[in-house]
């Protein structure tokens, strides 16, 4: 069991407050993703959990023990860094076995544990190599392997995929998802700014902004029921259409939001009408940019390859109950 | 432009040729010329010194090292035998002898003449008439035969002028002489005794200090770094005498001699530490933070991070500083003279060379051999460690 309990946690550097009064419970075995724009404090929060940063205020409990002042190595955590942080002068086996060596395990035990982890990650062939002789994906797997051999209660990932190319990123994402499934009682905390990673991997997502938690929930909760304008705009790709001014006032809100997939192009009688200014045809779907007189064009998703000539006037209809409305403070109003 | 298939086919070679001139730009050319200049400037005198030190001392005295492969030529004159040396053979009177005397060695007569002006006129083996009557034949090996049908009556032999050439001779005698007779070997050992601990001690201290100043958080860290940087510019000459007085006080208190190896080690350590700490701290601070953090999470203490991560990864910086410090100590004269003294059993190599210059100023073969002995250690140190100047160890740890 490995529950993480964060209570009133703050982190200050001098007078700058990076994290403000964070309260969060991460259940045992859960895959929790911290997501937010850069500078929002998500990495700092992870480093506070790891023990690499001291906690200014509040408490961090792992399994009910307050671990604020416990050394990183005694918290039962393992961390995978963005840059992998492999030890360049050690081969793969030594990299993976370093923590075990520091725990004074016998050579035989270290070899066995490293062997099991290497097997799991298909690294057996590379155990004698130095990090510089490995490809990016292999280095990533070594970094994960180094974390696995310690048999941690909590796994911390700090943007582990951001250094990989697109194809490898998808592949490694699946591997991490499988890893999570195979390690039932291990809690995973994963920091990313990529919302696709967040949506696909997470059991629950924490959206952070300016050192404060905006919303905590399952990916679908965040997608369906954003509790603030910020979350609405942050989750979903392409970004939710957010309109204010006259268009919003007509619907009794300060800002209205409509996801591109919740809009349809209809022959006539839609909510808005305007000329097409651009369309992006991706084969399976087409994104149509429609100028409806607001500051930014409205993005509408249509299925299949449909040709829209720029300048051609179209009518856009909203799907019933899929239009988000927000008041001036960015709080949600009932949907229409 | 109309793009046809043949156009596309020709496009590639054109691309390749248009790239070639770009490589030969002025900047690169200048850089290479400058490099060549410095390499020549550095290697040429070293090479000359080596050749000179290996030459025969007589040859070294008359010709430059660049002629070392050609036979060296020298004019000389000697008197022929007197009338009383003559022997009569078949009615012909002959005086025989050797122009080169007993110390002939492998020297060869190249030409000779009866006056100073025509010294190069006659090749060895030819026969020329003498003013005193008769004719003389001189062989290349120096043997001559002066024959005359009438008896010789002269009391002192006439002079004969000749050019003698000796083939190039290379020898290690100079080294043997200088090592044995002039105390260079003792000084060599003294220099080693000074230089090695004076290199190792500051590196040991500085590596620990640099780690602390780069990676440990404690109050006053910035101030200490600032002080270290400030100490970099303290002139050695200014602090020499106060330091000596201080050390003498300590030595007197401890009951050890006031001039000794321990003192010179301490002095060199003190003078080397600011630069060592500064260099190593900057290098260590540039190592990836994630590696240290990862090691911390793996359970390494500061000491384990230092020995397990920092030291192996800082090896290029340690080696660079070791070269600097070793060369500086090896070439140092001032600190060694002040703290170790100039007695015969303690004087270092630089000091000994200065003495040699005074006592053996004309014996170039000894000076060059002595100088080359003092060069050889820095050369070995440099070539053994120079590959660590290139920082290549970090490749692969981070992307």
Describe this structure in words.
Helix content of chain A is 26%, strand content 32%. By secondary structure, chain A is of the alpha+beta class. The longest helix of chain A is centred in the middle third of the chain and has 17 residues, at 166-182. The model of chain B is unreliable at 1-20 and 391-399 (pLDDT under 50). In chain B, a hairpin with a 4-residue loop joins strand 7 and strand 8. Chain B has helices at 5-23, 26-54, 57-62, 173-181, 184-215, 221-231, 236-254, 261-285, 289-297, 302-313, 315-331, 334-339, 349-359, 364-385, and strands spanning 72-79, 87-89, 92-98, 108-113, 122-123, 127-129, 135-138, 143-148, 159-166. In chain B, the strands form two sheets. Chain B has a five-stranded antiparallel beta sheet, with no helix packed on it. In chain B, strands 1-9-4-5 form a four-stranded antiparallel beta sheet, with no helix packed on it. Chain A binds chain B through residues 50-52, 71-74, 77-79, 81-89, 98-99, 102-103, 130-134, 136, 139, 146, 150, 163, and chain B through 288, 290-291, 293-300, 304, 308-309, 312-313, 393-399.
Radius of gyration of chain B: 35 Å
Provide the β-strand percentage band of chain B.
Answer: 5-15%
Share of residues in helices of chain A: 25-40%
Count of strand segments of chain B: 9
Approximately how much beta-strand content do the residues of chain A carry?
A: 25-35%
List SSEs of chain B in N-to-C order. Answer: HHHEEEEEEEEEHHHHHHHHHHH
Assembly category: heterodimer
Identify low-pLDDT runs of chain A.
none
Write the layout of secondary structure elements.
The complex is a heterodimer of chains A (336) and B (399).
Chain A lengths: L3 E10 L2 E11 L4 E5 L6 H9 L6 E6 L2 E2 L10 E4 L11 H11 L4 H14 L15 H13 L5 E5 L7 H17 L4 E6 L2 H7 L2 E6 L2 E6 L1 H6 L4 H6 L6 E4 L1 H4 L5 E4 L4 E4 L5 E10 L3 E6 L7 E6 L9 E6 L5 E3 L5 E2 L3
Parallel strand pairs in A: 3-8, 3-9, 6-7, 7-8
Antiparallel strand pairs in A: 1-2, 1-4, 4-5, 9-10, 11-12, 12-18, 13-17, 14-15, 14-17, 15-16, 18-19
Helix pairs in contact in A: 2-3, 2-4, 3-4
Chain B lengths: L4 H19 L2 H29 L2 H6 L9 E8 L7 E3 L2 E7 L9 E6 L8 E2 L3 E3 L5 E4 L4 E6 L10 E8 L6 H9 L2 H32 L5 H11 L4 H19 L6 H25 L3 H9 L4 H12 L1 H17 L2 H6 L9 H11 L4 H22 L14
Antiparallel strand pairs in B: 1-9, 2-3, 3-8, 4-5, 4-9, 6-7, 7-8
Helix pairs in contact in B: 2-14, 4-14, 5-8, 5-11, 5-13, 6-8, 8-11, 9-10, 11-14, 13-14
């Amino acid at each position: 069991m490995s529950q993480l309990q964060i209570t009133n946690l703050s982190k200050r550097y001098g007078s700058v407050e990076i994290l403000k009064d964070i309260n969060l419970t991460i259940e045992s075995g859960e895959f929790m993703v911290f997501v937010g724009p850069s500078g929002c404090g998500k990495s700092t929060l992870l480093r506070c959990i790891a023990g690499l940063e001291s906690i200014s205020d509040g408490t961090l409990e792992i399994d009910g023990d307050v671990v604020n002042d416990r050394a990183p190595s005694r918290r039962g955590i393992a961390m995978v860094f963005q840059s992998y942080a492999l030890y360049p002068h050690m081969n793969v086996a030594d990299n993976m076995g370093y923590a075990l060596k520091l725990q004074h395990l016998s050579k035989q035990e270290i070899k066995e544990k490293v062997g099991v982890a290497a097997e799991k990650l298909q690294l057996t062939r590379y155990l004698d190599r130095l990090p510089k002789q490995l490809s990016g994906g292999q280095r990533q797997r070594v970094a994960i392997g180094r974390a696995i051999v310690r048999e941690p209660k909590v796994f911390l990932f700090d943007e582990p995929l951001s250094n990989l190319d697109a194809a490898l990123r998808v592949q490694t994402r699946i591997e991490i998802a499988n890893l999570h499934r195979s390690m039932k009682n291990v809690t995973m905390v994963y920091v990313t700014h990529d919302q696709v990673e967040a949506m696909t991997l997470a059991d629950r997502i924490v959206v952070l902004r300016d050192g404060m938690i905006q919303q905590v929930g399952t990916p679908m909760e965040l997608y369906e029921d954003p509790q603030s304008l910020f979350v609405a705009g942050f989750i979903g790709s392409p970004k939710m259409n957010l309109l204010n001014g006259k268009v919003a006032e007509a619907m009794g809100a300060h800002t209205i939001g409509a996801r591109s997939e919740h809009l349809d192009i209809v022959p006539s009688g839609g909510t808005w009408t305007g000329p097409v200014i651009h369309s992006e045809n991706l084969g399976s779907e087409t994104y149509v940019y429609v100028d409806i007189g607001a500051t930014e064009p409205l993005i509408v998703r249509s299925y299949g390859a449909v040709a829209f000539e720029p300048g051609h006037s179209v009518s856009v209809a909203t799907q019933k109950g899929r239009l988000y409305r927000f008041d001036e403070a960015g709080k949600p109003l009932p949907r229409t | 432009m109309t793009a046809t298939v043949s156009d596309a086919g020709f496009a590639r070679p054109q691309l390749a040729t248009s790239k070639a001139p770009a490589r030969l730009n002025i900047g690169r050319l200048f850089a290479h010329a400058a490099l060549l200049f410095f390499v020549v400037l550095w290697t040429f005198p070293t090479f000359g010194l080596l050749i000179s030190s290996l030459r025969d001392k007589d040859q070294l005295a008359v010709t430059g090292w660049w002629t070392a492969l050609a036979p060296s030529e020298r004019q000389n004159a000697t008197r022929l035998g007197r009338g009383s040396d003559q022997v009569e053979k078949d009615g012909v009177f002959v005086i025989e002898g050797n122009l080169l005397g007993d110390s002939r060695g492998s020297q060869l007569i190249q030409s000779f003449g009866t006056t100073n002006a025509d010294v190069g006129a006659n090749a060895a083996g030819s026969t020329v008439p003498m003013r005193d009557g008769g004719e003389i034949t001189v062989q290349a090996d120096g043997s001559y035969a002066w024959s005359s049908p009438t008896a010789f009556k002269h009391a002192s032999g006439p002079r004969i002028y000749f050019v003698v050439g000796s083939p190039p001779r290379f020898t290690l005698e100079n080294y043997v002489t200088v090592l044995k007779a002039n105390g260079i070997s003792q000084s060599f050992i003294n220099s080693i005794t000074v230089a090695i601990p004076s290199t190792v001690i500051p590196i040991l201290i500085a590596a620990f200090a640099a780690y602390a100043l780069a990676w440990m958080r404690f109050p006053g860290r910035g101030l200490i770094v600032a002080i270290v940087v400030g100490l970099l510019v303290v002139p050695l000459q200014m602090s020499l005498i106060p330091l000596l007085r201080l050390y003498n006080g300590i030595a007197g208190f401890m009951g050890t001699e006031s001039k000794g190896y321990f003192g010179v080690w301490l002095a060199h350590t003190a003078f080397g530490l600011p630069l060592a700490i500064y260099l190593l701290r900057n290098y260590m601070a540039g190592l990836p933070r994630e590696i240290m953090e990862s090691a911390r999470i793996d359970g390494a203490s500061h000491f384990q991070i230092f020995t397990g991560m920092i030291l192996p990864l800082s090896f290029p910086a340690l080696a660079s500083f070791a070269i600097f410090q070793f060369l500086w100590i090896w070439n140092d004269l001032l600190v060694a003279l002040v703290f170790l003294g100039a007695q015969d059993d303690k004087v270092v190599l630089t000091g000994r060379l200065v003495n040699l210059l005074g006592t053996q100023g004309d014996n170039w073969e000894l000076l060059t051999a002595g100088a080359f002995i003092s060069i050889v250690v820095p050369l070995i140190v440099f070539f053994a460690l120079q590959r660590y100047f290139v920082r290549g160890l970090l490749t692969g740890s981070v992307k």
